[in-house]
Amino acid sequence: MSKVSNKTKIATALIGALALAGSNLVIADPLSDVQKADSKIHADAATSQKKVDKYFDQAQDMLFEYGSVADERESLKSYNDYVAGLVADQEATMKSIQGDINGVDALRQGVVPLMFKMVETLEQFVALDLPFNMETRVARVENLKTILNSAEITLAEKYRLILDAYSIEREYGTTLAVKTGQLQLDGKDVLVDFFNFGRVSLYAMSLDQKSAWMYNGDTKGWDRLEDSNLRELTKGIRIARKQGAPDLFSLPIPAAEAAQ
Fold first, then answer.
1. Cα(12)–Cα(20) distance, rounded to whole angstroms?
2. Which end of the chain has fewer CB atoms surrounding its CB within 10 Å, N or C?
3. Angstrom distance (rounded) from CA 255 to CA 216
4. Over the stretch 59-110, which tens digit does the pLDDT of each residue have?
């Protein structure tokens, strides 16, 4: 009886040990699975974090790029506004210039006939004036008549030359001038000094200073001066040539009616 009990105890102990061992094996498998799942979760979390970091960096880059594009857009907008302002100003300037051109065309239509009239008047004036320095004055008028019909000379230059001619003629009326030339008297050419006292009167004196004449506008001829006027005329010629100091001199002049 005692032996059986001992065997029974041993069998019971073996069964218990086996049962305990089996229980440990069963418990060990779920724990391993949990550990594996936890490792996988950490690995997946790390992978996800890397993706998040990557997407975050990409988002930051895109945000920076967007900011740059926005700044560039604002810069381009400002530049486009500036260019638009320039274009508008240029268009306004072009309209103004076109208006000036139209005005010039209208002015040209009025100026051209005026210039022809001015040259014609100047020609008549020279022909009716005292006959001093005639070759130069007539040549100047003929030159003006030529350039009026020239396409190579601008309208402004033509007008300037006409005004210059008028200015020269005006100066003739306020100066004393002497020029040596030939005077035809009684069918003979006499070498004389022509002396014009502005446009008041015109004289001629022989180079030997023994004879002198005054131009007569009524007869278009020359009247001989008295010998008493020779000295005064000589003084006037010397003053005109800058060979004597400015001084008063007395000479006869044509009547007012003849001088007109």
1. 12
2. N
3. 10
4. 888 888 888 887 888 888 888 888 888 888 888 887 777 766 666 666 677 7
Sequence-separated (6 or more) residues with CB below 8 Å from residue 204 = 183, 192, 193, 194, 195, 212, 213, 214, 215, 222
Supply the angle between the helices 2-128 and 134-148 in degrees, to the nearest 10.
Answer: 140
Give dist(CA 256, CA 201) in Å, integer.
11
The structure tokens listed for 219 are 């007869």
75-89, 108-122, 189-203: least confidently modelled range: 75-89
What is the total residue count of the chain?
260
In angstroms, what CA-CA distances link 31 with 26, 35, 89? 9, 6, 85
Q: How many other CB atoms are there within 10 angstroms of residue 67's CB atom?
A: 10
Tell me the pTM.
0.56
Q: Phi and psi at residue 228, in whole multiples of 5°?
A: -65, -15
4 versus 243: the higher-pLDDT residue is: 243
Q: How many CB atoms lie within 10 A of CB 129?
A: 18
